[in-house]
Amino acid sequence: MANAAFTHQRGEVFVDLELNGKRAIVTGSTAGIGVGIAHSLAREGVRVAINGRSERRGRAVVEEILAAGGDAVLALGDVADDDGAKAAATAALDGLGGVDIVVNNAGGFAGNSAVSSVFNIPPADWLRTFDMNAGAAVRMIQHFGPQMRDRGWGRLIQIASGNAMMPSGETPDYAASKAAMLNVSLGTAKALANTGVTVNTISPGIIYTRSVKAWFRQIGEREGWGDDEAKSEAWVLKNYSPQMVSRIGRPADTGDAVTYLCSPRADFINGIHWRVDGGATPTIT
User: Taking the C-alpha atoms of 243, 133, 29 and 103 in order, what is their torsion angle to the nearest 10 degrees?
Assistant: First the structure.
């Protein structure tokens, strides 16, 4: 590896997260938050399997990590179905020689968010959305959890959403499936108690991804300031998601939180739900 240690520097202090040489698969890591998670892990010396459905986008992320001095392989497969999850798991194992860390980031919803409500989402779409979120996490946990238990060390991280605690009137199927991931995660943590495997959940707030960029553009067109993203961001913080930090999140914000939970330094953190949302969720639990 080009660099033996990918420790972050904080002023003059280096913090070694003791992750160098660990092996991870990040599902849904060909775009958005997943890319940020993959890069954050790779910077700490983790060998990362990039997962998604697009070979072109997946290879692009692999090349980015390699160019930065990290190590990455491609593990294609749609984890929302059994065959795709098996293909992804097999590719990760073949490419890395084993998996110590699973980040269940892949997800989405089957319906059209512009018209969806609890009254008009077909039951089949509800089930498909659960497959894309909670089901995808369960598949990867079942593939890798027993191996981690047998080795006596592992990390299983689920990426949920602020919608899990604060659902809106739109995409209730998505919100419910993300809430289900909280229960999957805690139940798995209890099932793997005292094995050296920790299981935690992170719920990001609004994160600047391609879809949020498009949303900013729509806001700008509607409000009359065009492509001025700073004004759109300010509008969102004032009118849509008031919070305690004067910006929306970036993929690296989620990635760095995930990376810490993956560290051996986080051994005593297990079964938690960590909101990475700038304080947008008004609750103490």
Answer: 80
